[in-house]
Amino acid sequence: MARRRERFERSDVPRPSALRSAVGAVVCVVVLAGAAAIGYLAWTRATLESHLEDSFLVDAVADQGSFVVPDGGYAASADEHECVLLLTASSLDEGASLESAQILAINTTQGTASLANVPLDARVGSSETPTTLSELFSAEGAAAVVEPVASAANVSLSHVIVATDNVLSEVAAAAGTSADELLRSAAGLLSAMRTDCNAEDLLALAEKIASVGAAGLSATDAPLVPETTTDDEGNVTETGYQVIDRAQLGLALGLLAPAA
Prior knowledge:
With 260 residues, the protein is α+β, with helices and mostly antiparallel strands. Helices cover 39% and strands 24% of the residues. The strands form four sheets. Strands 8-7-2-3-4-9 form a six-stranded mixed beta sheet, sandwiched between helices.
C-alpha cells in the first residue's frame, strides 16, 4: 500500500497580506502626490516668471520718445535719474480699470527720490485721438498707456510696474535676495504684478528703492492745466481736457532745474 505524501507549506514563499496591499497603495499615493507637487511647483514658477519681462511692456518702454527741455528758462538736471511708471489696476486681466498712476523718479546721483500722482483724467495720446489716461487704459491695456504717459509728462521711463496694489514696500523688501530666492519667497508679490523688468532688473530696482527710502514717500499730484488750441487767426480755445504741466512736473520730480 502506497504511503500518502504529506504536504508542507514552504516558508520561503511570501504569503498574500492585507497589510502589504495597504502599504503598496500608500506608496502609490505618495508617489503620485509627489509628482503632482513637483508639477504644481514647476507650473507656479513658470507662471511667476511670465509676470516678469512682459513682452508688451518691454516693447512699450522701448517705443518712448525723447525727453525734451521745455521753453521758459529751464534746464535738464545734471543728475542721473531712473523713472518708473507705477500703475495700480483692478486686476491684471484684460478690461481692468486703472485705479492710480504714479511716476517714481529716483535720483541715483544724490540718493534721493520723488513720487508724483498722475491724475487719471489727464489727457494723453495724440491730438487726433484725444482720450484720458483712465479711458485709454480701460480700452487698450497697460502697455498702451506707457508711451502716451511718458510723452504727456515729458519723462523717460526706465521701467513699468502694473500691480493690483501699491507694491513699492514689497519690492523694496526683495532687496538683497537672488533671482532664485525672488521666485521662491516673493510669490505673492510677483503674482500681483506684471513688469518689463526681468528678475535681475527688479532686484536692482529693489536695491535703489530701499536705499533711497522710496517705499515711504508721500506723493504729490502732477499739476494740470487746461488744454488749448490756437486756430489760424490766433484765437485760443480750451478743448475741455486737462493736460499735465510738463515743466512743473519736471521741477517736482527733479528732472528739470531753473536755467542759470
